[in-house]
Amino acid sequence: MNLDWSLCEALKNTNVSGIDNVLHIYDVNCQYYVHLKERIEKNEHLKIDERIQLHHAIGLFHVHGHQDECLYRFATTYVPGAGVVDGEILETLWAVLNTVSTSTRTASLASRTELLDDQMGDSNFKKMLNICKCHLMLKFLQTTDFCSQICFKGKTIIAKYHRALDNATSSREYFDDLDRAAPQAQRDEWKESIEVAEKARLTDVDEMDYMLPQYTNGATLKEIEADMAKQDSRSPDPAADNGSITSWLIKGLKIEDSQFVLSNSVIVPLLISLQG
Known about the structure:
By secondary structure, this protein is mainly α. It is built from twelve helices and two strands.
């Protein structure tokens, strides 16, 4: 109820006029969004403008801890129009807060809350100043190259924009090299299938399962051993006194595995130490 109310009020009181598509990112959106529409319709105090289309997603810090299906269904990486965004807020402050967290271990709850709140407020204040500073530089200096060099020194929106432009070029070159490895007909088929899945995502996120690896797990060693033993039992030739063919093969595989472990744990480190 609290989350539903927060979402509705945010969309109501935030300046989203003219914005029809809203990216809604939440840590457990795979579960939260399922009955969201029903809960809102049943509560007279909750309402979302009919023109607003919510695109549900999960932040990249959390989605990798979900089931495999959640990655392609809800990761911002696979939401059309989301761009490159991690979808996290508080988690980005962990590195900074870790430096002051040790001083709160013996503090009271009120003191701990006040200290952490001050640290987060300071972070927000610095972000606001840096954004304004770069905006004034661009406005008054009127020197794009010089401004770019200055902005890169701070973690500002403008700095991130210029860094994104540079990374987009190298990423495009890498993608083109990878893309050319597949036949044109195959690339056209993949592109069409992905576009169909992305369009259907709004009504059924399960359509994004097309992105899942299309393979089946092979038989395990135990299953192979059992199958070979069954074939041996059906063989007209009696097994030798010193064991069947299957047992010899299994022993050979185990010896090979032992040699591999020995090579990685002893021989390779020894060779590296001798070379050093």
